[in-house]
């Protein structure tokens, strides 16, 4: 019998647990979540490309009298085509939410891993400072910062990302503490491997499960935060097409012309539900991975 066909190797291949992504895809809930989120993301990405030939109007062009059933879905508060505004209003929301989430993840992972690996006084100082930031309400901090610096895109991304970082740091620290006591970390330290290499090459790949779950949660919160700030007039500014801004502009005529409010609300709701389903499935897949590893 050849080495390739040996039963030991075959048994080892059979016993190898599937990766996180495979366990995620096997869940029906994850498939539904991916489908819902992908539909909204594609709509947001392709929507601006469909204007104006799909509706006959750009997102800022006058189409008729305000709050009238002209066109496919009527007009908004300034007489612009509702469908055109909707198709052109999702890209910035998703882009800002994604950038804010990535910024928060980068800061939180860096702080959490550093605190857990250094330990001692450094850990205490970092985490107590982290607790101070956690005590500040996210929305209040965002309102104050945007009021001072102005409602600009980079301010929106930075503020939301910073408010995410302390929560991500706590999760990262907890996951890192469970990894740094493993033998392969001690072996790397014995061979004088640089600390940053240990964190990047050995620790980070072993805390991917909790971080992916946190990524999904923070993306959900970022979408809600960007939309909420736009609704309050502190996010995207007129005449920019934006889903949160559409809700604020057209809520006064919800009974007369509901589409200007219902379309963005439904899109944000579907995206949020899809992201939550993916996050729950990721948490379940990560838990199964830990159970399999413990066995």
TrEMBL record:
GO terms for cellular component: plasma membrane. It comes from Arthrobacter mobilis. Belongs to the binding-protein-dependent transport system permease family. The chain crosses the membrane at residues 32-51, 93-111, 132-150, 254-274. The keyword Transmembrane applies. SUPFAM superfamilies: MetI-like. Its main location: membrane. It is a multi-pass membrane protein. CDD domains: TM_PBP2. GO terms for biological process: transmembrane transport. It is found in: Cell membrane. Residues 90-274 form the ABC transmembrane type-1 domain. This is ABC transporter permease. Keywords: Cell membrane, Membrane, Transmembrane, Transmembrane helix, Transport.
């Amino acid at each position: 019998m050849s080495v390739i066909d040996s039963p030991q190797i075959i048994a080892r291949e059979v016993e190898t647990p599937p990766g996180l992504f495979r366990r995620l895809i096997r869940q029906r809930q994850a498939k539904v979540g991916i489908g819902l989120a992908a539909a909204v993301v594609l709509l947001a990405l392709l929507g601006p490309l469909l204007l104006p030939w799909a509706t006959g109007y750009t997102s800022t062009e006058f189409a008729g009298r305000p709050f009238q059933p002209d066109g496919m879905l009527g007009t908004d508060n300034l007489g612009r085509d509702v469908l055109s505004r909707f198709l052109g209003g999702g890209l910035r929301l998703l882009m800002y939410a994604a950038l804010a989430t990535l910024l928060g993840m980068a800061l939180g992972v860096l702080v959490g891993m550093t605190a857990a690996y250094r330990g001692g006084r450094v850990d205490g100082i970092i985490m107590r400072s982290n607790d101070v930031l956690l005590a500040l309400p996210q929305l209040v901090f965002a309102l104050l910062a945007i009021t001072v610096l102005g409602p600009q895109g980079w301010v929106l991304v930075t503020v939301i990302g910073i408010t995410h970082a302390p929560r991500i740091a706590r999760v990262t620290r907890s996951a890192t503490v469970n990894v740094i006591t493993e033998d392969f970390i001690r072996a790397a330290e014995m061979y004088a491997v640089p600390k940053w290499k240990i964190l990047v090459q050995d620790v980070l790949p072993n805390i991917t499960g909790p971080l992916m779950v946190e990524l999904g949660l923070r993306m959900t919160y970022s979408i809600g935060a960007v939309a909420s700030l736009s609704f309050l007039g502190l996010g995207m500014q007129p005449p920019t097409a934006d889903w949160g801004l559409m809700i604020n502009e057209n809520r006064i005529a919800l009974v007369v012309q509901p589409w200007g409010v219902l379309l963005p609300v439904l899109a944000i709701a579907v995206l949020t539900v899809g992201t939550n389903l993916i996050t729950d499935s990721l948490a379940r897949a990560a838990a199964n991975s830990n159970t399999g590893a413990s066995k």
